[in-house]
Here is the input.
Amino acid sequence: MGAGETAELAVLALQKHGAMRVYCVNRTLSSAQELAERFGCQARPWGELAAALVDADAVITATGSPHP
Here is the structure.
């Protein structure tokens, strides 16, 4: 979750260690899409967060949000 610099670093680390499928979920879909396009991931809209969590083996939260 998130699409900023920390999320970019997380995606790179996941790919370096063999992650086959990485979803980018962000409150702003266009930001998730931009990150996904740059790193060959799949963007999912915020409304699909629950479904993405069900599919996930691990979740990295990299947002600047002050609220959970």
Notes: The helical segments are 5-16, 29-39, 49-55. Strands lie at 23-26, 42-45.
